[in-house]
Each structure stands twice: as structure tokens, then as C-alpha cells.
From TrEMBL:
Belongs to the short-chain dehydrogenases/reductases (SDR) family. CDD domains: SDR_c (cd05233). InterPro entries: NAD(P)-bd_dom_sf, SDR_fam. Transmembrane segments: none annotated. Keywords: Oxidoreductase. It holds the Pfam family adh_short. PANTHER family: 3-OXOACYL-[ACYL-CARRIER-PROTEIN] REDUCTASE, SHORT-CHAIN DEHYDROGENASES/REDUCTASES FAMILY MEMBER. It comes from Prauserella endophytica. This is SDR family NAD(P)-dependent oxidoreductase. The keyword Oxidoreductase applies.
Length: 255
């Protein structure tokens, strides 16, 4: 990991969903290295405890909390646990999501409930839980939604429809919540990665092959190239930025 200013996010408490692996794990490590206290939320508690131990050994502050985004009735208790251990949450990173590779006319109702529940309904309700506490306490805050370039461009993959719909809705959620909560000094922003090296991408490659040679720069970028966007959106530098989704796609998609 590149060296980060260890004081950039000092005094901040970040809750990162889907932090047991992939981009969520990386985002948690990046925020901790910049001085935030981080609550790593995921279903795999054994994995998040291992990541927390690594962050602590590196001089950061991190705790693990269990979170299943398909069970909104547990959200209040999850946020309570994070706040009891670290203090009031000032930054929520809605990163968790599930990929889905089935053609639209073969999507089952159960699978649709799972994907929409995890990728959209869960982040919306968790944002309302965290945002509601910020409003009640009169505290400013930040919510960062991890969307996808598939929210804006058809990927050419006939099995990406349901996933793309949820990510497009997440981008729209960013815009409307930013308007709703601007007066409360809650910035709601998003980032839309293109194709980067990740566990999710590795699964796609195993199914359909490596797309690198078809991309303008002939590569799948390293996820470290997302770090600066995340830090910008969570730092004082972006205080006036709300309601926007920053596209980070290495030139992969046309405009």
C-alpha cells in the first residue's frame, strides 16, 4: 500500500460494508492508514477479525461488526456496536454488493430479492439509519456509495442486467439523498469503478476469460488506483462536493 497521510482523517469514524475481502477490505485499510477509526462490517466475522488484527498491528484502529444487508432489522444494533466501540459514525462507505450472472429472462424472484436487497435496499436503509443519527445529533457526515460503470454503460455482457439496474439505482440514490440532507451537512457521494483487479473480477474472468486485451489501455488496473478517489471523497478537501458520482474506469468506457 502506498504511504498515506496518517492524520488526513484523524477524528473520523468510518463504517465500511463488505469489508471482509476485495475492495471493501482495501478501502478499510486505506481509511485506517489515513487516521480514521474503522468498523469493518461483513457477514464473515472470522475474516474481518483477521483484517482488524492486521490494521491494528500497523498502528491503526479497527473493529469488526457483523452485518447482513438483507436483514435491515439488525442495522440499528450493528451501528450501535460500532459506535459503542469507536464513537459516532462520521463516514459510511456502502461498498458491499453481490455480483449476478444470469440472463434477465432466467432471473428467479428469490435471486432478484437477494441482489436488490444486498445492492440497493440494504444500502438505502443503512444510509437512513446512519444519516438519521447524524441528523438527530446535529453532526455533519459523509456517505460514499460504491456504484459501478455498469450503472451508466451497457457492458455487453448479457448476464449483467440485474446487477446494472441495482448499481444505477445506487447512483440515483446518491443524488437524491444529497439533496435531502444538504441542509444537515451530510455529503452523499459515489464512486463508479470500471473493471479493476478484485475478487469479483477474478470470478468473472474464470467464467468468461480475461478482457484486458480488449480494453483501451490493455490492462485491468490495480485497485490501489481507487485510493485517491476514496480519500478525496472522505476528506475535508471535498467538503463542497455532494450528489455526484465520480467515474474511475481507466478509459474503459465511451462517454
Amino acid at each position: 500500500m502506498r504511504q498515506r497521510d496518517p492524520h488526513l482523517l484523524e477524528g473520523q469514524v468510518a463504517l465500511v460494508t463488505g469489508a471482509s475481502s476485495g475492495l471493501g477490505e482495501r478501502f478499510a485499510r486505506v481509511l485506517a492508514a489515513a487516521g480514521a477509526k474503522v468498523a469493518l462490517a461483513a457477514r464473515r466475522t472470522d475474516r474481518i477479525e483477521a483484517v482488524c488484527a492486521d490494521i491494528t498491528a500497523a498502528g491503526g484502529t479497527a473493529v469488526g461488526v457483523r452485518l447482513d444487508l438483507t436483514k435491515p432489522e439488525t442495522f440499528a444494533a450493528t451501528v450501535d456496536e460500532a459506535q459503542d466501540k469507536l464513537g459516532p459514525v462520521t463516514t459510511l462507505v456502502n461498498n458491499a454488493g453481490v455480483p449476478y450472472g444470469v440472463r434477465p429472462h432466467k432471473v428467479s424472484a428469490a435471486d432478484a430479492d437477494l441482489v436488490i436487497g444486498t445492492n440497493l435496499r440494504g444500502p438505502f436503509l443503512l444510509s437512513c439509519e446512519v444519516g438519521g443519527r447524524m441528523i438527530a445529533d446535529g453532526r455533519p457526515g459523509r456517505i460514499v456509495n460504491v456504484s459501478s460503470m455498469t450503472a451508466f454503460h451497457y457492458s455487453g455482457t448479457p448476464t449483467a442486467a440485474l446487477y446494472s439496474v441495482t448499481k444505477a439505482a445506487l447512483a440515483r440514490m446518491t443524488e437524491v439523498l444529497a439533496v435531502e440532507w444538504a441542509r444537515n451537512r451530510i455529503n452523499v457521494v459515489g464512486m463508479a469503478p470500471g473493471m479493476f483487479h478484485s475478487e469479483m473480477m477474478a470470478g468473472m474472468i474464470s467464467r468468461v476469460g480475461d478482457p484486458s486485451d480488449q480494453l483501451p489501455r490493455g490492462r485491468l488496473p490495480d485497485p490501489s488506483l481507487l485510493d485517491s478517489t476514496l480519500l478525496y471523497l472522505t476528506s475535508p478537501a471535498s467538503e463542497a462536493v455532494t450528489g455526484t458520482v465520480i467515474k474511475v474506469d481507466d478509459g474503459q468506457f465511451g462517454r
